[in-house]
Amino acid sequence: MVSPSPSSGASSRAPVAVTSPPQPAPSQRSAGALVAVLAALTAVAPLAIDMYVPGFPEMGDSLGASSSAVQLTMTAFLAGLVVGQLLIGPISDGLGRRRLLTGGAIAFIVFSLACAVAPNIAVLTGARFLQGVAGAAGMVLARAVLTDRFHGPELPRYFAVLSQIMGVAPIAAPVLGGALLAVSTWRAVFVALAVVGVLLLYGVVRGVPESLPPERRHRGGVPSTFRAMGTLLADRTFMGYVLVLAMISAALFAYVSGSSFVFENLHGVSSTTYSLIFASNAVGMLISGAAFSQLASRVGLNALLTAGVAVAALGAVAQVLLVSTAGETLAGTWATLFVTVLGIGLVIPSTMAIGQTLGRSAPGAASALLGGFQFFFGAIASPLVGLFGEDSSLPMAVIMLIAAGAAGVALVLLARPWLGLGEPTAVKAGSENRPS
Predict the structure, then answer these.
(1) Which CATH number fits domain 219-420: 2.60.40.10, 1.10.510.10, 3.40.50.620, 1.20.1250.20?
(2) pLDDT per residue over 90-117, tens digit each?
(3) What is the radius of gyration, based on Cα positions, of the chain?
(4) Residues 415-426: pLDDT tens digits?
(5) DSSP string, 363-424
(6) Which residues form a coiled coil (predicted)?
């Protein structure tokens, strides 16, 4: 097995492709079934994040907890997602994917039920952290399995599917949670998540074969797999793409956490109208994902990534200028956020596909760093919107602009897309993806 070595500049680029032959691509039908299960595994974390949000007030009353203590349960889950991805991803490079996927699904069921019966807020917070660690298995290993099984133009197309699921799941989650709360208590949400875990376990057992055979696994045990992660951390180009994804995700999380306040409190729309606005903006991400799938093999991932960062930054700049000059306008805020989300919809699948290709010799470790940094910076950005004031949408706009600008800096200084690295269409079995 060849591990990637650090690249400090354009002249120091190590091969990232594996020396052993990749897994043969599955048939069209089996590929569809596999991607469907992997998409469901990707969706479970967004569902677990947002499904119980409508029940926050009832949860606080029933457990005798403050609103900040209730919100801490979400922070605990996000922390679990980060820790889980950083642990499970590299370990899977040495042990294989299927056992960890199965174990993660079982653990998710167990800890979802623990949340459902939690007697106090402290137990709920601890159970949410562990539920996040378990849910991370599906997210991080879904990307690794895709990298194991698919190559060339197929890879970015399937990553587009995963990113679209990530965009749609947060919309569906509060609606599903609200429907459950209309007929039951907040505890029913976690029972429903346990049922989702059972379905995922069935899907993994029936539809996800082992994608990393023993001869392609890292030898030397767990220490070897974490050394591979260290090598990726020292790789300038790979980490450039990781930071682009992390920063653009920070912009997305700032939007998700702050948009309800902006539209409902500042512009006075109802919660139903806000849901429609949020859904319409999410359509922008779906449009981007569809365009990405069609253009990836013809235009190139780095070109689409650059365009996505530029569009997201343009939307954020327009939002700041609009609020600073014309003031708070519903139509203007809606339109500029739509443009920003449109750009984000190009960035996420591009960085995932490029990052996984550059880290193909250690797909689990690469997936862990991509997902871990994504949720870490997202978790940091989420509370900042409320921290800087609630009498204007400018804090949300500025935070999104700073995050999009940071993504642009990482793209130019570290990733350097003009080099054309990480294009899956250039990868051949046993070939080098980086020019010497």
Answers:
(1) 1.20.1250.20
(2) 999 988 999 999 999 999 999 999 999 9
(3) 21
(4) 999 999 988 754
(5) HHHHHHHHHHHHHHHHHHHTTHHHHT-SS-SHHHHHHHHHHHHHHHHHIIIII-GGG-TT-G
(6) none
